[in-house]
Amino acid sequence: MHLYLCRKQQIRDKLFEYFYKLLKDTDTQFYRYLYSKINWNNRMLGLIGPRGVGKTTLIIQYTKNNLDLKETLYVTAEDFYFSDNTILDLADLFVKQGGKYLFIDEIHKYKDWSKELKLLYDYYPGLKVVFSGSSVLDIKKGVTDLSRRAVMYNLQGLSFREYLHLFHNIKLETFTLKNILEHQIDIPGLEHPLRHFKNYLKQGYYPFALEDDFEWRLRQIVNQTLESDIPLYAEMNVSTGRKLKQLMAIISKSTPFKPNFSSIATMLSASRNNIADYCMYIEEAGMVAQLRNSTGGIRSLGKVNKYILRTPTWCITLQKIHLI
Q: Is 178 found in the same domain as 82?
């Protein structure tokens, strides 16, 4: 028993070790737009958004700047610790040792996560919990169990303003659309902002574009979303996941376009009745947007006027990598 407890303590120490390494490696020179808008005083809050937009960095920045690290722990639900331990186990021990702030990343990787978070909220009123996840579908599905408990925030990719700050150290205030259309803006030191806009369209949506392996990481995001996140959520088989990649290839080469479900079904060798579901899944996963016209009432049901990719980065990059 003594050896077993020692082993448990060693594993928990590894969790703190990983957390402290992240703290050391995380820069605090640039903050995403959502950082100052989150009410961190909530007992439980969730942060969702596409993969790679900076959710983990935002969380680590907050802990680094504002919290007593002796009372704080960050973990990822993918850690081997959770192969034979539960979140409740960790939280119970953490609270007994004086813990007050628990951050859980990639929460959707943990089975029945929403039920355990609900119990955390009920059992430990003095513990503040922040969870985040990249599988938007799974998170939205699980949040229904956390109604009236968790406050949710959605983090999107970089705006053009954020891109100029992060990539070119050009700091701007936020302008309204009305200001822009009426030419009521002044950008000191940047007479021709559209010079940078082309590069922003290519890779400016993701903060990790500053790194050398941008296209490789973006390929990982595409594959993870289409081959894992959506099929697991929708209980699809491998071959159906393959059809999602084919569908994304079709959209990326044609966007923006008005969909013809019958033609797409023929190209995918799939049932026409399934195409609308496939499109809904990839929209919920943050990869495409379905634009509908202003028709109201029953005539508007199922009517999609245009499909576009969620960001220009997808459009440019998906055509360069082999989806099918």
A: no
Mean per-residue pLDDT for 101-117? Answer: 90
Whether residue 140 sits in one domain with residue 6 = yes
Q: Which domain holds residue 116?
A: 2-154
- Predicted model pTM: 0.82
Q: Show Cβ contacts of residue 242 under 8 Å, excluding neighbours closer than 6 positions.
A: 324
For 32, residues 6+ apart whose C-beta sits below 8 A from its C-beta are: 53, 54, 57, 58, 155, 158, 162
Whether residues 131 and 227 fall in one domain: no
pLDDT at 281 over 70: yes
Q: Is 295 inside a domain boundary?
A: yes
Place of tokens 């799974």: 138
Q: Is residue 209 part of a domain?
A: no
Together in a domain, 22 and 146: yes
Residue for token digits 């559209």?
194
